């Protein structure tokens, strides 16, 4: 049957940060129809942490510690919370034409459920681990995360990626490298990174091989998607695009793009700064930093674990909010207009979540006067 055979790749990179080069490459070439539907598995030689598109690196990662320890820092072109991945983790990337999967969901939250539910069933069948999907994008076992995921659409192309924690992670490094906001755990039982994360090794009492974990996912997805995976290789075009992207993706400008310093520069006199963080239940963490001069928004930064399509839509919302009235009515008019745009998805969040967060930041700025 046409479209039922999908390519399977086995890649080894220096770190997860380097995988940030492969992610946009496979999505762009798949959207253009230049590569087959692909399921890639990537293993690593050293630990790294990776920022997602709307993560503020200063707020969420200890950059000084990472650089001192030789921990590579990368930045992805999609939504999520900063992610730690060491050689005990394996990364998968599934990229395919949505039209090749009959009935595949059109909305990001439902697509997460479709794919992660299938993974949970495969993990249970192979390892008898009671894994379950937890909205928006986690695979959990008894309230602890065993794999995080990210997903995006570009035209008819869908790219889904996840990082099953196979072996026990180096928690002493992870807990120093990442700086999660307390609000991140507001809708979860675990309240620290150490309590939140688990691994196949910890759950089983013995260290499974990467091959065992891969086989579970491969068999599960072959059944879920009704496809057969066949061994393949990177194309020359994929290799060339990854090499070209390296110049940008490890630049200071790209890594620091969501920092306040890059967005705001120096704050002029007479401008009030307020910050407010909200964790949407079973949705993203949203951080608003708002600069107000007089009764209008002088500048604004919206960051966090925001999953959206197109990925730049929240940046465009920021631009539209500059100069608007610093009132719930003025902000609401702008925010609602973006949620109503055709083909826009901001997964797990409603306009009111952004309005509430922005107004909270404005209120805190006024309280400092």
Give a verbal description of the structure.
With 369 residues, this protein is α+β, with helices and mostly antiparallel strands. It has 2 domains: 5-255, BirA Bifunctional Protein, domain 2 (2-Layer Sandwich); 270-367, Enolase-like, domain 1. Helices cover 38% and strands 25% of the residues. It contains 14 helices and 16 strands. The strands form 4 sheets. Strands 7-8-9-10-6-2-1-11 form an 8-stranded mixed β-sheet, sandwiched between helices. It has a 3-stranded mixed β-sheet with strand order 4-3-5.
Topology:
Blueprint: E1 5-13, H1 16-31, E2 38-44, E3 48-51, H2 57-60, H3 63-68, E4 72-75, E5 83-85, E6 91-97, H4 108-127, E7 131-134, E8 138-141, E9 144-154, E10 157-162, H5 171-177, H6 193-196, H7 200-204, H8 210-225, E11 228-231, H9 236-249, H10 252-255, H11 260-264, E12 272-279, E13 285-293, E14 296-304, E15 308-309, H12 313-321, H13 328-339, E16 345-346, H14 351-367
Parallel strand pairs: 1-2, 1-11, 3-4
Antiparallel strand pairs: 2-6, 3-5, 6-10, 7-8, 8-9, 9-10, 12-13, 13-14, 15-16
